[in-house]
Each structure stands twice: as C-alpha cells, then as structure tokens.
C-alpha cells in the first residue's frame, strides 16, 4: 500500500535521497514508460519510481515496491529498450521466493535462472507493448558498453548470466513467441 511504499522510499540510503531527481524531462519520460509497463502487468498504483543521479547504470526493485533507477541507465536507453529494463526489474516481484531462496543458499546458478526468467518477462512485456522484443537485448548490450566505457567492474552483475547466455536465451525465447 501507499504507506508501505513511503516507508520503503524513506529506508533508501541517504546518499540516494540527496541525488533524487524530482523534476526533469528525463523523469517525465521514465514515468510515462514506467506507468505503461505497470499497467500492462496490472500493477498500476502498486509500485513507486525513484530516479536518481548517478553515472553508473543501475536498476533494482527495492523492497518489492519501489523501482530505483539511475539516470545513467535511463537516459542512454531508447524508449523501446527502457520498458524492457523496467519489466525485468518488475519480474523480480514474480520470483521473490525463488530469489530469496537462491540468495539464502548462495546458489549462483539459481540466481542466474531467476535473472533469465526476468529477461523472459522483459521480452514478453516488450512484445505486448508493441515494441520489438529484440530491443531488450540491444538495451543490455548498450548497458554493457556504458559499463566498459566507465571502466566499472563486471562484478556489479555477478548474479546475472553472461551477456552471451542472455543473448542466446533471448533469441530462443523471441523465436518461440513468433
């Protein structure tokens, strides 16, 4: 509910609150895409968006009810790529129990399987939103390029499968949708 979401936002680290974006063209664009994606999943009014300034591309579903997104991720992605990333993060809410179990047992393989399932949610969401589902993989590739350009450690995505595995999964899943 609204009270829980407010508590979740308040519980975000102070360093994020200091960099929160509350007005901008980017925020308007992200909010529009966010709401379209939530509506598709029947989740309108059940999640909040928290956009913050950071060159590091990052996104996460915080406490199951707040999508936390950096402008370093949102800004460079095209409109057809961003809903895929949002849907991927929303996908984590569908697999919370599996995710918690994998984290508790430190089962990296199970974590990667959950990430691929979330990729499936992203791809299917793009198709239902009338975008080319292949744009999701292009968005992931764009994110990887940004990370390399900024000389960031690939350890940021330890729980995620390698891009090659995600590409293989994505291509097979997209083919099965046609």
Q: How does this model look, in words?
A:
With 178 residues, this protein is mainly alpha-helical. 61% of the residues lie in helices and 8% in strands. A 3-stranded mixed sheet has the order 1-3-2, with helices on both faces. α3 (25-40) crosses α5 (82-94) and α6 (96-104) packs antiparallel against α7.
Helical residue percent band:
55-70%
End-to-end CA span: 37 Å
Mean pLDDT: 93
Q: Name the poorly predicted regions.
A: none
Structural class of the helices, strands and pairings? mainly alpha
Major sheet attributes: 3 strands, mixed
Strand content is: 5-15%
List the total number of helices.
9
Inertia-based shape = globular
Strand tally, please?
3
Order of helices and strands: HHHEEEHHHHHH
Question: What does the oligomeric state look like here?
Answer: single chain
* Biggest sheet strand line-up: 1-3-2
How large is the radius of gyration?
Answer: 16 Å
């Amino acid at each position: 509910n609204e009270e829980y979401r407010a508590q979740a936002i308040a519980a975000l680290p102070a360093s994020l609150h200091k960099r929160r974006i509350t007005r901008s063209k980017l925020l308007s664009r992200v909010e529009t895409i966010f709401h379209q994606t939530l509506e598709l999943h029947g989740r309108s009014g059940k999640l909040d968006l928290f956009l913050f300034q950071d060159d590091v591309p990052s996104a996460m579903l915080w406490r199951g009810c707040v999508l936390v997104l950096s402008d370093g991720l949102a800004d460079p992605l095209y409109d057809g790529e961003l809903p895929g990333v949002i849907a991927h993060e929303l996908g984590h809410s569908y697999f919370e129990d599996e995710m918690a179990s994998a984290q508790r047992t430190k089962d990296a393989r199970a974590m990667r399987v959950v990430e691929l399932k979330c990729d499936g949610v992203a791809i299917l969401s793009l198709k239902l939103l009338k975008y080319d589902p292949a744009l999701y993989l292009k968005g992931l590739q764009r994110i990887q390029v940004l990370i390399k350009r900024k000389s960031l450690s690939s350890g940021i995505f330890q729980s995620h499968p390698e891009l090659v595995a995600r590409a293989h999964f994505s291509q097979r899943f997209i083919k099965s949708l046609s």
